[in-house]
Amino acid sequence: MTRDNDYISKQKFMQELESYRKGSVTRRHFLNVTGLGAAAAVMGAAVPGLRPSPAFAGDIGDRVIVATWPNYHDPENFEAFTEATGAHVQVNVFGSNEEMLAKLQAGATGWDVYVPTNYTISTYVEEGLIEPLDTSKLPNYDGSAFDARYAEAGSVDGTLYAVPKNWGSTGMAVNTKHNDGKPISSWKEFFDIARDKFTGRAMVHDYQLTTIGSALNYYGYSFNSVDENELADAEKLLIDVKPHLFAITSDYQPSMRNGDAWLTICWSGDGKQLNTDMPEIHYVLGREGGEIWSDYYAIPKGAPHKDAAYALINFLMDPQVNAKEVLAHGYPTADARTFDLLPEALKNDPILFPAQELLTPLEFGAAATLTDPNRAELMARFKSA
Amino acid sequence: MGACTPADSKTIAELRGVTKRFGDVLAASDLNLSIREGEFLSFLGPSGCGKTTALRMLAGFEAPTEGDVLLDGDVVNDLEAHHRPVNMVFQQYALFPHMTVAQNIGYGLRQRRPRLPKEQIADKVSKTLEVVQLGGFEDRKIWEMSGGQQQRVALARAIINEPKLLLLDEPMAALDRKLRKEMQIELQDLQRQLGITFVLVTHDQEEALSMSDRICIMRDGRIVQVGSPQELYDRPNSRYVADFVGTSNFFDGKVADQSGELTTVCLNNGLHVRGTPVGELISSGEVTISVRPEQMTLHRQGDGLAVEVRNRIFLGEHTEYLVNHEALGDFLVLSPRQSELTEGAFGVGDKAIVSWEDSAALVLDRN
Amino acid sequence: MTRRTRNWLLLAPAGTWFLVMLIIPLTVVFIFSFGERAPAGGVVPAFTFEQYANLPARWAAFKNTMTLAPIGTLSALLIAYPLAYYLAVKSSPKWKTILLVLVIVPFWTSILIRSYAWIFLLGGRGIPALLELVGIEGVRLINTPFAVLVGIIYGYLPLMVFPIYVSLDKLDKRLLEASSDLGAKPWRTFLQITLPLSIPGIATGCMLVFILLMGEYLIPALLGGGKVFFVGNALVDLFLQSRNWAYGSAVAVTLVVVMLITVTVYMRLINRLGASREDVSIM
């Protein structure tokens, strides 16, 4: 998945690991928790030989700095943007929404564009960390083209703060080879088989939202629950499961690929990639529910290259460009114009676009779920147990 | 001094045809030497002559490439140092910096098995400290001791073990001149007192001459001559030894007649001189005549070499003249006070005649 | 320029650095530790000991750190010492240079990439697969405390080797000859001379490794699969995930205090060992 491109040296770094990792594109990749991805990207920009010379010097400046998730873009699109505008795209990648929020709260990030998930946007607005968008500077954005479910979180109190990038679901990936060819279909099965037949082979995310959410789903509770008793149940389950887990990690593709692990909580894009390369790995949504989410483009308050930020978002809103993005990252788009440009096979892909009845029980993460201190502390207790 | 060592005393250590190579470097070649019990033997030679290698083979730090090292009649070529009843005083003393004086000195005793009682070790350490005149210094740290004191500690650390051989590797090189003189005398006293066989390595001829019963002169990894200081001084077997031991004047020439008891040598200026042959002269007849300055006499007239006085140094008991001969160049003459009184002193620029007894002129191999 | 001004100028860069990068941040962290978590994350000023009262919730992290850091340090020492000894005392000058370079070479690569290599080696297709070939089945290495220990030893070995190497290299080899000459068998020479004289190197190496290990979080995260949790990991989570700066600061302050206490006790111990070297040498 990682295309060879020298626009950031992160790509080279990823290649080093590729033979083993076989192109993991986990969204909240561990590397980013280490900050190394960001450091490498900054370095890449600082080395003159690694920077393309612009075709012309546009008046939007010579650079635009993007905070996003790993392997979430088509590098060729960024190259094309640089060629067209002269602004070099500098990419910083992150491990979690919490981390992104923490960095913005600490201040002076220097970011021009960032990619928040639906449930974080209201918090950014409350904290005054996000810039309202001027749609006149985004001619390629057409609000009516988007499925409202995946676009509505971008507006708070009638003001547009963020435009949809793509959406996805959080389910589970299971290697059916070890379960007599049968997939599993519920969170109940997930946590039960993890303690039984799949002991030492299952993984949960190093991310409170999805890991606690899945444990809550086990009991039929809401993915977003902040109810004390329900959280206590979830904690009990997680701590009971922990000794049986292979790992608590958001970088689960390598272990799934090399056969060390057989089961994991999984984002749909990863599920798609695993399934494509290893058909015995199935991506399924939990019958009880789970998460559905949507990522957005936004501009942080005090962005140093605001014109370039608008130019880049507008560029990425172009359906032709966005279609290429979808082909690169494997997540579904909410933009009907882009959808129409996708190959037929992808339009009917059950992982990208699951049947409606499977989507119905899924919930969007809530802002309170992200910022709830009890959930954060529960996760920490689980990890250090 | 040789008198105190009976010549017929038994051999305590021996080198038999010992050769040592370090890679391509020949450090010692065909060494043959018997060390007698109770004697004070010195290896003398310039640096790199192989004397330290010889000592290290006796200590057990090096094994000979060829030949045998014997201790008390046993071949010990491969016996490691810690099994040999031999101790060494190292050049820079090699005292253990993390131990006190007493711990350093008692180190050897603490290695003994079965263990010696602590009190016995402490007692012996104190006594040994007395012997080297450092009584009461037990608890001092090594770095608190002066160079001379450290030397005594090193000595005490070695002799406390009552070794069959005490090896001393340039033990006084780090001391100043005055201290060195004192230590030389002390070492000799100590050796007589303890009766231990001492083997000293030095490049200082004065040190070797003043302390040793016998001296083994080495050059380029070979033993050149072994003998008492007097023998080496009076009967050096080569120009090298004559030059290394004491001071001598050398006149190069060719053997003209070897028929009699004395050899006649034709010097480079055509002058014929008679002398006593020492050792084997090489067949080419290229030899040198060696005459010690004190065996030459200066006269106003008579037979001998006509010279001019170039310099005069009054030394009290003697007067040292630097004289010049037209063909033979500069050489030294040492005149006793007595002859000055009878003959009268010579001044710089005076003409004089130099002569010597035939027996004082040694005919030596030129090398 | 007076000497006084010159001295101040010499100290100014380091002093400023310390002030800006160490003293001020530490003070800030100390102040934060008495605060409370802001509703959306971060910190609001307060004066409460609540964060410190909550420390037992991170007991496991402290326990893991305080167990694996000493074990890791000790294991690194046991592996590094013979290597350093060989390098300094036994190897020929030619090999010495080559081997020293080999010890340094891993430092040219990021610890991250090197740890990824271990993920593979310890993973199911690595060493366990080899063990299966010889009939030892079901060995699980990755994501265990053992894997973390392996990573720690591997990552920190050069830091242990070098100080010990330096102290052994400085060691006057004639002292070893002197010891042998005085009748000490090789292992007694080692115990009585080599080992005591290399204590400064051992002390430095252990201190370096131990202090760094106390703050380690990358290796447990990568090789422990998120299941072996150090204080460092707890801190990363508190600041970057749950954004509870107040509690994170309290944990950080506690870690610094624990570290200071440990290092002080350790220094005392080393000093006492140095002072009573007679016991060491009389062994």
From TrEMBL, chain A:
It comes from Parasedimentitalea denitrificans. Keywords: Membrane, Periplasm, Signal, Transmembrane, Transmembrane helix, Transport. It is found in: Periplasm. The keyword Signal applies. Pfam families: SBP_bac_8. InterPro entries: SBP (IPR006059), Sperm_putr-bd (IPR001188), TAT_signal (IPR006311), TAT_signal_bac_arc (IPR019546). This is Potassium transporter Trk. The keyword Ubl conjugation does not apply. The chain crosses the membrane at residues 30-50.
TrEMBL record, chain B:
InterPro entries: AAA+_ATPase (IPR003593), ABC_SmlMolc_Importer (IPR050093), ABC_transporter-like_ATP-bd (IPR003439), ABC_transporter-like_CS (IPR017871), Mo/tungstate-bd_C_term_dom (IPR008995), P-loop_NTPase (IPR027417), PotA-like (IPR005893), Transp-assoc_OB_typ2 (IPR013611). Pfam families: ABC_tran, TOBE_2. Its EC number is 7.6.2.11. GO terms for molecular function: ATP binding. It catalyses: ATP + H2O + polyamine-[polyamine-binding protein]Side 1 = ADP + phosphate + polyamineSide 2 + [polyamine-binding protein]Side 1. SMART domains: AAA. Residues 13-245 form the ABC transporter domain. It comes from the Bacteria. PANTHER family: SPERMIDINE/PUTRESCINE IMPORT ATP-BINDING PROTEIN POTA, SPERMIDINE_PUTRESCINE IMPORT ATP-BINDING PROTEIN POTA. Part of the ABC transporter complex PotABCD involved in spermidine/putrescine import. Responsible for energy coupling to the transport system. The complex is composed of two ATP-binding proteins (PotA), two transmembrane proteins (PotB and PotC) and a solute-binding protein (PotD). Belongs to the ABC transporter superfamily. Spermidine/putrescine importer (TC 3.A.1.11.1) family. This is Spermidine/putrescine import ATP-binding protein PotA. It comes from Parasedimentitalea denitrificans. The gene is potA.
Automatic annotation (TrEMBL), chain C:
It comes from the Bacteria. Keywords: Cell membrane, Membrane, Transmembrane, Transmembrane helix, Transport. The keyword tRNA-binding does not apply. It is found in: Cell membrane. The keyword Cytoplasm does not apply. Its main location: membrane. Gene3D superfamilies: MetI-like (1.10.3720.10). It is a multi-pass membrane protein. Residues 62-268 form the ABC transmembrane type-1 domain. Belongs to the binding-protein-dependent transport system permease family. CysTW subfamily. PANTHER family: INNER MEMBRANE ABC TRANSPORTER PERMEASE PROTEIN YDCU-RELATED (PTHR42929:SF1), INNER MEMBRANE ABC TRANSPORTER PERMEASE PROTEIN YDCU-RELATED-RELATED (PTHR42929). This is ABC transporter permease. It comes from Parasedimentitalea denitrificans.
